[in-house]
TrEMBL record:
Domain Histidine kinase/HSP90-like ATPase intervals: 262-356
Pfam family of the protein (one): His_kinase
Name this protein carries in UniProt: Histidine kinase
A single GO molecular function term of this UniProt record: phosphorelay sensor kinase activity
């Protein structure tokens, strides 16, 4: 890649616009002088062309010089630009003197002095403007580039924070399930070796699924249901006939992608707070249906209901249900959070995920919200 190719497009456009503007200025002034003051003197046109070439070179050098000064503090930049405008003026003035006076035989000091005194009037401002306009264009471009960079960094930081939040929520949910399951196994291992072996086999499948869930953002519902079934079987070893489980899933939903281990905390909540404290136990029903607004999930139990310890009101030390709610809202938006319905005869926890074709729109909206946040 050449040096020219490495220059950002915005700087190339700015340079061409500035040079184009001065091309018009020098062309008009040269033609006027050629027609009105020095009729048909061809050197006037050539002198204007040479001066224009010099201005284009100095504009490029001014960009480079200003970019170098930009690394220093403001006082240093101010002093540097004072020197820069003086150097720019001397270059243009000496070159103009050479074409207008020196080539015509006016080579003495008095001739140069007279020319410079005339130049220090209105023409001096025109030369100063050339340098100052170039510097102003540089700082304007730098300002908008810094704004764009800040917005980009802000957007990237928001997305990284969102990813970290999701990772944290998942890391909280997974140990929450695994440690509670191990506690259940510890009480069974001393009573029945055969049951213990069976539970260990089921637990190995649970561990495998929990570990594999970190490798992707979504899993098929059928795999999540297998995971839930292994969890229920482990708990049924502990609770026996007191814990029943019913599954009602529309076949077309089995291939739907969902966040891994998002259902397990909801089922565990029903076991721990609804069925386990109830002397006669109860039934947990898991239903999945397609509806007009997406995919409807419902976990329902006939446990203690409103008499159970609440886990979504901030009074519980459990984090599974709270984090499931946060996790769903983080992935699918605020309308995908959990809906809790407490009854006298149990709890119902439900949520709706957008249909597959809508998930890309959700991701786009999340990105836009992160940028505008």
């Amino acid at each position: 890649m050449t040096i020219i190719e490495k220059i950002p497009k915005i700087w190339k456009i700015a340079y061409l616009l500035i040079c184009g503007w001065y091309a018009i200025n020098y062309a008009v002034s040269s033609i006027i002088e050629w027609q009105a003051f020095r009729p048909y003197t061809t050197s006037v046109l050539w002198n204007g062309f040479y001066l224009f070439e010099t201005v284009c070179i100095l504009v490029g050098l001014t960009f480079i010089y200003t970019n170098w000064l930009f690394k220093f503090k403001v006082p240093v930049q101010v002093v540097g630009h004072l020197f820069g405008v003086f150097f720019y003026f001397m270059c243009i003035s000496y070159l103009s003197y050479y074409f207008d006076y020196y080539l015509d035989g006016l080579v003495y000091f008095d001739d140069w002095k007279e020319y410079m005194l005339d130049l220090l009037s209105w023409d001096a401002m025109r030369i100063y403007d050339q340098y100052l306009i170039t510097v102003a264009v540089y700082y304007i471009i730098k300002y908008f580039e810094s704004l764009r960079q800040k917005e980009q960094e802000k957007s990237e930081l928001a997305l990284k924070n969102k990813e970290m939040e999701l990772s944290l929520l998942r890391s909280q949910i997974n140990p929450h399930f695994l440690f509670n399951t191990l506690n259940s196994i510890s009480t069974l291992i001393s009573t029945s070796k055969e049951k213990a072996r069976k539970v260990i086999t089921q637990l190995s499948d649970v561990f495998r699924y929990a570990l594999d869930s970190h490798s992707g953002d979504k899993v098929r519902l059928i795999h999540e249901l297998d995971f839930i079934e292994n969890y229920i079987k482990i708990q049924q070893v502990r609770f026996g006939d007191r814990l029943k489980y019913e599954l009602d899933v529309e076949p077309t939903c089995l291939s739907v992608g969902i966040p891994p281990m998002v259902l397990q905390p909801l089922v565990e909540n029903s076991v721990k707070y609804g069925i386990a404290p109830k002397d006669e136990g109860g039934t947990i029903k898991l239903m999945v249906r397609r509806i007009s607004g997406g995919i409807y999930f419902e976990i329902k139990d006939d446990g203690l209901g409103v008499n159970a310890k609440k886990v979504l009101d901030g009074n519980s030390t459990g984090v599974g249900l709270k984090n499931s709610d946060k996790r769903l809202r983080s992935i699918y938006g605020k309308y995908a959070g959990l809906h809790i319905n407490a009854r006298q005869d149990g709890y119902t926890v439900s949520f709706i995920l957008p249909p597959e074709q809508e998930e890309q729109k959700v991701e786009t909206n999340r990105a836009l919200e992160a940028v505008s946040a």
